[in-house]
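Team,

Forwarding the record for the chain on the shared tracking sheet. I've put the sequence and predicted structure together so nobody has to dig through attachments.
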Amino acid sequence: MEERKSILIIYTGGTIGMKIDSASGALVPFNFNQISSEVPELGKFGYRIDTISYNPLIDSSDVQPSFWQHLANTIEENYEKYNGFVILHGTDTMSFSASALSFMLDDLEKPVVFTGSQLPIGMLRTDGKENLISSVEIAAGTDENGHAMVPEVCIYFDSMLYRGNRTTKYNAEYFRAFRSPNYPVLAHVGIHIKYETGNIRYPSRWGRKLKVNSRLSSNVAVLKLFPGISEAVVDAVIGTAGVRALILETFGSGNAPTSGWFIDRIKQAVSKGILVVNITQCLEGKVDMGTYATGVALRDAGVVGGADMTFEATIAKLFFLLGQEADMLEIRRLMAINMRGEV
């Protein structure tokens, strides 16, 4: 007899967990211990579905690295008890949280599926029910050997399963809130769930123990370039006290002004031990600092190319590496390689 699958739903906050209070007419969180009454369809799976509801609930705009640490620890504490995990999270910073956990959960062999909704689950036209039901099914999915179909940190939204650290929130109004501009989807969900196994990262060998690396450092600054940016603005960002890494959001394939003062500021930052990472402002494409003279000038100044990483993944990777490593040369090396499918 096949062992009954078990799924842990972790409700952290967000639109998906809201319903209309009959007395006040206001949207209020519902009790996730009563999930079966709100989404009775889950009972048809036959899984054991348990829930944890954070208290207090977190508006995703208030997410901090300490929240990621708490979430990673929740998964670690429950890892041996469940086949998979579904994290209900607000959409605004979901890509940041999914990216962070992809680095923090090392040797992951079980699905960790983030999902949410654009409309509360208690509303008639909600997208929350389908997102939740499909996420649970994906979290329980196994192959003929009993291994997880998707042993990754993912985001499921509107019939698409994405690698979490490849996503960005794309739309605040329509149900398809997320895009993965530089990496194909991990699964399409329609009448059947079609797993794109060639796109999924699998362990080199199964049976390893999960390792949670929860040390993070947020000593990162961001400089988004724009035509007419002034020396004072650049100085203010680079001169921020305690900064160990700078994300430079450049034009096109990694280009920036070639003004002498600007390149000098970047060289000075690098000479002070600040790691400067170049990512593009474009949604699609990648940084190539060998194509144009403007990019070459940054490369020669000591800037590291971020390839096709999203902004969210770059932030999460830097927080992670700065928390793990004291050697900036090693951090520099790791930023340039693919650690969790983010590049």
